[in-house]
Amino acid sequence: MKKAQLIASTSEHRWYAISRDPARPHHLIDTNEYVVTTGDDSILCDPGGSEVFPAVFAALSEVIDPRTVQRIFSSHQDPDVISSLGLWNDFNPKIRCHVSGLWGSFIPHFGCSEDTLVSIPDEGGIITLGKAELQFIPAHYLHSSGNFHLYDPECKLLFTGDIGAALLPNHDCNLYVEDFDTHIRYAEGFHKRWMGSNTAKQKWINRVRELDIDLMCPQHGAIYRGDDVKRFIDWFDKLQVGIG
Known about the structure:
This protein is of the alpha/beta class and 244 residues long. The chain has helices at 53-61, 79-82, 85-91, 180-183, 185-194, 198-208, 227-238; strands spanning 4-9, 14-18, 33-37, 42-45, 69-73, 96-100, 117-120, 125-129, 132-138, 148-152, 157-161, 215-218, 224-225. The protein has one domain (3-238): Metallo-beta-lactamase, Chain A (4-Layer Sandwich), CATH 3.60.15.10. The longest helix has 12 residues, at 227-238. The protein has seven helices and 13 strands. Helices cover 23% and strands 25% of the residues. Pfam families: ODP. Residues 30-220 form the Metallo-beta-lactamase domain.
């Protein structure tokens, strides 16, 4: 089953990773969900597919009151990212989902109303959680034409959706990358095929090199921390994408 683990905190807010599930059916891709909370206000990042909603809800409920989830951030439109939105909306009709406006006519097919969605402008922006200001970082054309990441400058944490994703073997359930050289083999094919533009890649790299990052948190696979963040960015910089 999935479980929530604390990965970063300040005196004001905390990040939990609801991480990989060794008990999932093997025909489904494994996913990580993340929640950042102040205790009375929470943002759920990439809540996952409808099939994992019960597991995500149960794990999240172990660490926070799910009624504090007022907002959802969706990095992009894929079903493994956001097809549970209708179920979250059934639980709390007041939940609002921040996502690229490009997907405003597509995501309601997952079972929510147009009023549920809040469009993020192409250039990004700021969302506040208590005293924290989190930044929407554009990552367009890297897996999705309307794509964003979420950066927390206080926790030095960058949630990166599918960038940094690795399709790990089922026996590898580590929360963090433990051996970069071994781990990155499971990321290479995914990035070559699913990242569509070297130009977009370079634009993203130039932007994130300016950020102070201790944790880089993808939707699939393990979390990069410390020096492995720079190792990943350097590796991605050299990788030719849009092939495979």
